[in-house]
Amino acid sequence: MAELHYAAKPRRMAHFIHLICIVGLTISGLYIRFPFFYGGMDFMKWAHYILMYIVGINLILRIIYCFFTVDKGAYKDFTIGWKDIKNTPAVLMYYAHMKDDYPNVANYASLQKVTYDVFWVLLLIQGFTGFSLMWREELLTWCAGPFGGVAIAAAWMRVFHYIGMWIFVIFTTIHAYLSVHEGFPIMMHWVFWKKFPGLKEEWESHLKEEHAH
């Protein structure tokens, strides 16, 4: 069971923007690759490009927020320490239904931190492969030799970009499921900015009762 943690507004805003962008990029990207209705290509391309810049700027601002704002503890939500590593087997056992109590040691479990860190790296890869499809000569000339030409290199970038999209879809789906299943009040807070009166005390009391068993 996850701990109820009310997050600062900048964190929630960055999370909400990221959510909207990932959904929009997935839908527009799938349409560009597999047009499923007539007449929407120009709109979908523009939407994809605009959302691409927004998610990139959002990532940069999120990193700046982690390290250079008054919320000094923000970066700890993504750093993996020895305590997280030791906690990972217990987290895996909990999700495998081999352990009843959620092994909470921080705001995010070790697997959450790994997932979020992978997302950051994957966003950079998606950004590079996406820009490579727009500016082939400028970005792919250096690797044209090993791939056998700029056109072939661009074709591989499209494959990598497509695979990256499905990795986002799969992990985002798992993240959404666990958010609803394991911490619905937290999900409502992060996505819809809800703060229920007395919920924090009720949630903490529920956790204490579980640990007592």
CATH topology title: Fumarate Reductase Cytochrome B subunit
Q: Can you give the mean pLDDT? A: 79
Q: What is the number of strand segments?
A: 0
- Note the main sheet: none
CATH architecture: Up-down Bundle
Low-confidence spans: none
Written as H for each helix and E for each strand, in order along the chain, the element string is HHHHHHHH
**Number of helical segments with 4 or more residues:** 8
Please state the CA-atom Rg, rounded to the nearest Å. Answer: 20 Å
**Strand-residue proportion:** under 5%
- How does the overall form come out from the CA principal axes? globular
- Kindly give the count of domains: 1
Overall CATH class? Mainly Alpha
The CATH superfamily title: Transmembrane di-heme cytochromes, Chain C
The portion of residues assigned to helices is over 70%
What structural category do the secondary elements indicate? mainly alpha
End-to-end CA span: 13 Å
